TrEMBL record:
<dbReference type="InterPro" id="IPR001646">
    <property type="entry name" value="5peptide_repeat"/>
</dbReference>
<keyword id="KW-0812">Transmembrane</keyword>
<dbReference type="InterPro" id="IPR051082">
    <property type="entry name" value="Pentapeptide-BTB/POZ_domain"/>
</dbReference>
<keyword id="KW-1133">Transmembrane helix</keyword>
<protein>
    <submittedName>
        <fullName>Uncharacterized protein YjbI with pentapeptide repeats</fullName>
    </submittedName>
</protein>
<feature type="transmembrane region" description="Helical">
    <location>
        <begin position="63"/>
        <end position="84"/>
    </location>
</feature>
<feature type="transmembrane region" description="Helical">
    <location>
        <begin position="21"/>
        <end position="43"/>
    </location>
</feature>
<keyword id="KW-0472">Membrane</keyword>
<dbReference type="Pfam" id="PF00805">
    <property type="entry name" value="Pentapeptide"/>
</dbReference>
Length: 365
């Protein structure tokens, strides 16, 4: 795709400027003509049948002076508008050129140039609200193209995809920068960031704003989500083993079949979260809020639930609690408000095999 030329929809700059300029010229000529010929008629209308004053010429000149002053004020207003319009058009042109240059930098082989393109897009998104949604989609695609394993599914969550010895910020600074920009940008209404099937162990997404993000089937082993807002995020089949989720917000998130073994999640907000069949072995959930969560089929053996709030959680005989945990202290959920067991087949998320093309009759012969 060519990035050096951006298609422009609508009239050209010349038309946009010449149209208001032509109209302003017509208005100016009309006002000038009125200032020259209208004073006599105005004075006659004002006098009516009365006798004209002795200083008739002076009266006409006074009216003409007042009209010319009004015309001058109108010209100043029109000039101010045209100047503002020209500045808007110049800014739009600069934004378009900067946007095209930043997109070109994302495909550069040098990591330094790619970093410059990422931060240039962030600057554009702050100044241009119309481009925020597009920039979010571009950066999400940038991350997926460099860290996505399209073959991942729920079976891969039980095992780490790769062993990472260093943090993502040192291993892939451009991907880390793109995630950082996505996490601190202003939220765009009804936009879902598609970041599924990523392989990003030891990623740092602390304090990021990732509401409604889609991370399903991703490997985020030992990642940092301290204070991260993941409200209503899709985290089905995600591997978060050893991750730090302290004070994170996962309100109404979907964590079905997720692996959270050994996570440090003190003070985490898991209210109304679907944790059915999730693996929470040896998880530190001290002070966590699990109210109205779904724990059917979840495994919590060895988990620390000291000070955790479990008001009206949903569980059954398949829920594995820590040794010695007394479930009688849990306030039961109302039967009529229990959500149905949602059996995840992952058919809508499965990777479809490539179709096998049948041999033509000529090749068969």
């Amino acid at each position: 795709m060519r990035t050096d030329k951006i298609a422009r929809v609508g009239p050209s700059w010349g038309y946009r400027i010449s149209g208001p300029l032509f109209l302003s010229a017509l208005l100016g000529l009309g006002a000038l003509a009125g200032a020259l010929f209208l004073p006599r008629y105005l004075l006659a209308w004002d006098l009516g049948t009365a006798k004209p004053p002795a200083d008739y010429a002076t009266a006409v000149n006074n009216i003409r002076t007042a009209l010319l002053q009004g015309v001058g004020g109108l010209v100043l207003l029109i000039g101010a508008y045209l100047t503002w319009r020209q500045l808007q058009l110049s800014r739009h042109g600069q934004t378009t050129e900067s946007f095209a240059a930043a997109i070109a930098h994302l495909g550069d082989p040098s990591v330094d140039v790619r970093l410059g393109g990422i931060y240039a897009l962030e600057r554009i998104s702050r100044s241009s609200t119309a481009d925020r949604r597009t920039i979010g989609e571009i950066l999400s695609a940038f991350v997926r193209n460099r860290a996505c394993d399209p073959q991942r599914d729920t079976r891969h969550a039980r095992h780490a995809a790769t062993a990472a010895s260093v943090n993502l910020s040192l291993r892939a600074p451009d991907i880390h920068a793109a995630l950082t920009v996505l996490g601190r940008r202003d939220t765009v209404r009804d936009q879902v960031l598609h970041l599924d099937r990523l392989v990003l162990p030891k990623a740092d997404l602390a304090s990021a704003r990732l509401r409604d993000a889609d991370f399903h089937f991703s490997d985020l082993t030992e990642a940092s989500f301290v204070g991260t807002d993941l409200t209503r995020a899709d985290l089905t089949g995600v591997r978060l083993a050893g991750a730090v989720l302290a004070d994170a917000i996962l309100y109404q998130a979907d964590l079905r079949d997720a692996v959270l073994t050994g996570v440090i999640a003190e003070g985490i907000d898991l209210r109304a979260t679907d944790l059915s069949k999730a693996d929470l072995r040896n998880a530190n959930l001290r002070g966590a809020r699990l109210d109205y969560g779904d724990l059917r089929g979840a495994t919590l053996t060895g988990a620390v639930l000291t000070g955790a709030s479990l008001k009206r959680v949903v569980f059954d005989e398949t829920t594995a609690w820590p040794d010695g945990f007394d479930t009688s202290r849990i306030r039961p959920a109302r039967l009529r408000s229990l959500p149905p067991v949602r059996i995840r087949t992952y058919g809508e998320l499965a990777v479809q095999p490539a179709p096998v093309e049948a041999d033509s009759p000529a090749e068969a012969e």
